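agent> fetching stored inputs for the magnesium ion docking request
agent> found them:
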Amino acid sequence: MQSPRTRIVEVLAIAPPRADVRIKGWLRTVRDSKQLVFLEVNDGSSMASLQAIADETLANIDEVRKLTTGSAVAIRGELVASPAKGQSVELRATEVEIIGKADPDFPLQKKRHSYEFLRTIAHLRNRTNTYGAVFRVRSKLAHAVHCFYQDRGFVYVHTPIITASDAEGAGEMFRVSTLDPSKPPRNDAGAIDWDADFFGRQAFLTVSGQLNGETFAVGMGDIYTFGPTFRAENSNTSRHVAEFWMIEPEMAFCDLDDNCTLAEAFVKHLVKTLLEDCTADIEFFNERVDQGLLARLRHLVDSPFERMSYTEAVARLEASGEKFEYPVFFGANLQAEHERYLTEKLIGRPVFVTDYPKEIKAFYMRRNDDGRTVAAVDLLVPQVGELIGGSQREERYDVLVAAIEETGLHKDAYSWYLDTRRYGTVPHAGFGLGFERMIMYGTGMQNIRDVIPFPRTPRHCEF
Ligand code: 4AD
Ligand code: MG
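agent> prediction call returned; pasting tokens
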């Protein structure tokens, strides 16, 4: 059995002196000043490292002296108050065990590296201050997601990752197949015979758990999903990845207004978690990454989100006098520049934009009585733009079938989904929050590639 260790985050909270404290971690720096060797140890449990001091009473002091950044060590010693600036305690080592030496070419030497460089070593970057903080925050937020929904009695549903249906109807799915691409079986007409494929039909990675989630909501009431989703959209932006995590609540007996109320409470809960449980990491981001972060997060918790229809948003964009690259008119997709104008300049806080033209939204959204819009909602937030997309769902069977066919999809492919509109259909609504975009918002990190451990983007699938 391995000897026990205390995590550095806990050691730093101990009031010194304390004898026989044992830590294990990786060396951030080694400084040799004749009699004493200073070892800065980080174990990933906190932003702060612990300084250990080794002296010539150690039998292996000459070995310790030669240690380099990145090496793994176990240190035992007495925790004492530190005279040095910037730390309250230090560890007087009585034993330093060398667990795993780092080759001298370890790429994370003590200096600032660019995010671009660190992306090329995604397997090592969690050992830096910034990424350590990002991934601790990510973990806390994931837990907070479950707390929020579980406390409200929602049922967590594991929707499938492999699917035969395009939940968004946008044709951005990755194919899942076991056929040999160099010689696929063909039918009499010469087309690929998908019947011979693993599932006996075409299959894909899911773009959203929503449709499966809906079937559970209209039987179990309030449900949520939290899992990976995949989009084969070839967009090289700082806000898109091909594999991302989404939280999708779905509620029976619920309309668009209730949906927005839940979304607002959810985002506020996540931000409160950051402010209360991730204090050291958020202060780091506020100091080093985005000086407006703390003020923005506190402001968000204290003020109501704005609500505005798409029609009004278009009118205000047209009246803004801003020069946009893309034109604005009723029927246009709002581009990032428009979204940012609305949430950053016009409103200055998160804004729900509702009731979009039906042509630019997915088939499952409920048609409004005006005949031109659907009960859709996007939540736009400063810095990030679209954080949430959702809607009230079309619960009327005939209207839904017509919408599916208008989109050019086949109703037979959605027969199981349509059944929910035949057996006790009810008004229901839900949304999807992009987890990475939430982390960007909560940390001030500007590129989505820096908030997911191993980003997947066009032409990038290393690690
Ligand atoms: O707006 P989207 O496409 O909505 C849906 O998928 C619905 N089925 C959700 C629902 O109603 N249950 O995606 C939802 C959110 C977006 O607002 C965005 O935050 C995020 O998912 N998202 C992405 N995040 C990273 N990379 C991408 N390529 C993303 N596409 C969407
Ligand atoms: Mg969307």
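agent> quick read of the result: The pocket of 4AD (ligand 1) is lined by residues 167-168, 208, 210, 231, 233, 240-241, 244, 246, 248, 386-391, 430-432, 434, 436-437, 448 (CB under 6 Å).
agent> awaiting further instructions
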